[in-house]
Amino acid sequence: MRLTVVGCSGSFPGPDSPASCYLVEAEHEGRTWRILLDLGSGALGPLQRLVDPADLDAVLLSHLHPDHCADLLGLYVVRRYRPDGPLPAKLPVHGPGPTAARLAMMYHGLEDGGMDGEFAFAVVSDSDPFTVGPFRVTPYAVNHPVEAYGYRVEADGAALAFTGDTDDCPNLEPLLTGADLALLDSAFVDGRDDARGIHLSGSRAAAAAVRAGGVRRLVLTHVPAWNDREECRAQAAALWPGPVEVASAGDVFELGAVAPNAFGVPVDREAGMRMWAEYRAARPGLPPEDDVYVDHFGDGPRIADELLAYITDGPKRATAGLVASYEHDGDALPRVGSHWVACDGSGRPRVVLRSTELRVGPLSSVDEQFAWDEGEGDRSLAYWLTEHRRFFGRECERIGIALTDDLDVCFERFRVVWPPEHADD
Fold first, then answer.
1. Fewest CB atoms less than 10 Å from the CB: which of 122, 154, 228, 328?
2. How far is CA 335 from the centre of its chain?
3. Do the beta carbons of residue 322 and residue 315 sit within 8 Å?
4. What would the pLDDT profile of 355-387 be if each residue is shown by its tens digit?
5. Which string of DSSP letters, residue by residue, matches 40-96?
6. How many helices (H) and strands (E) does the chain have?
7. What are phi and psi for residue 115, nearest 5 degrees?
8. Measured between alpha carbons, how far is 404 from 396 in angstroms, rounded to an integer?
9. What's the Cα-to-Cα distance from 291 to each of 55, 273, 278, 392, rounded to whole Å?
């Protein structure tokens, strides 16, 4: 499933973007299926650079404010008054109850029958799913001054969540939970916009995504041209544990199942590389690295979260891995000065680490200082040996060797370098 941002300016078209419109595509039964989430003011023009309007399979309207639906009028003209004659099939348009009547009122002088000759209007209802080709779409009623819906779109094993315009509300939880990508309204700014029941701010958008759980990628959208995009990002970043993105017209996002690592745990390498890119952009002059390692600590989601917490909330600045495991999985040993991106148990990237010291030696060569620097449990050598023999025992079973104290271990010390709120530097 592919998402292209046609327009993302909030409330009115901005100098760099039309109003709300998102093209969603997926391959199915030998062709590309295309739906639009909203077709707001100014969006029909740039949409034509991406797709022939005749090739659309459906339009989904979040609500009937002009910045989300006004260019349906232009689409009506394109379909009805083509030199080759009207298109033979009606285009499904899904939206709130008054959609057909409201669009007919907006189009002065419309022929009898409204727009029914070109559009097949379908009224959506809360939590009542429908399908368009490969897309399973579930509308969720949201919190806006008019009847409004967010849409959860699922295809190819991926889930896209689009809030439309909303303030916080209970339905954001089922809409957002487990979404591969969440497009969240961020029209308001904390400290400036006090009205409620209209829009989210960056912080409220992030809080909703955190509360829902399992959101892999957070993208703020519907930011009006008069807002500072970086302020919206910063307000969300104060609560969101990973990278915060702000949509721009022309952005393209590929959504799909995240590949599991050697332990069968999903790791979002694409998101990890975005975090790495953010770090590099903030640290000009870093030497190039061909292949940055993206993975998690431990051999399962629970232990990954536990060990990551020792870093973000505690003293852990060292780790150890069997050399045989690196070899078995085809991974190169770290190098002094190299970086890697550590993920949580859901596969979401959380921190970038820089290796500062490396030593390869037998398991029996670990000392009290290294156990202390690894920062787990009571930080004693006895605790380290007990827990690591358990972990290394599971590793040896996985790769088919026997655990002995003579096995080579890569003892690594590191620093946290990104994001700034967790960085040691």
1. 228
2. 30
3. no
4. 999 999 999 999 999 999 999 999 999 999 999
5. -TT-HHHHTTTS-GGG--EEE-S--SHHHHTTHHHHHHHHHS-TT-S-SSPEEEEE-
6. 12, 19
7. -100, 15
8. 10
9. 39, 10, 16, 26
Q: Which residues contact 410 (CB under 8 A, 6 or more apart)?
A: 320, 321, 322, 323, 326, 333, 334, 358, 359, 360
Ramachandran bin of 297, using left for φ above 0, alpha for ψ from -120 to 50, beta for the remaining angles: beta
Q: What is the pLDDT of residues 273-317, one digit of tens each?
A: 888 988 998 888 888 887 788 999 998 888 999 999 999 998 999
CA distance 115 to 367: 77
56 within 8 A of 35, measured Cβ to Cβ: yes
Q: What sign does the CA torsion over 374, 309, 220, 187 have?
A: negative
Name residues whose C-beta falls within 8 Å of residue 417's C-beta, 6 or more positions apart in sequence. 279, 283, 339, 352, 353, 354, 423, 424, 425
Pairing assessment for the beta strands 181-185 and 158-162 based on DSSP bridges: parallel
Which residues is 241 bridged to in the sheet?
A: none
- Tokens 């998402």, located at residue: 3
User: In this predicted structure, what is the pLDDT of residue 114?
Assistant: 85
Question: Cα–Cα distance between 193 and 179 in angstroms, integer?
Answer: 28
Residues in the chain: 425
What is the model's pTM? 0.68
Read off the pLDDT of residues 314-324 as tens digits, 9 standing for 90 and up: 899 999 999 99
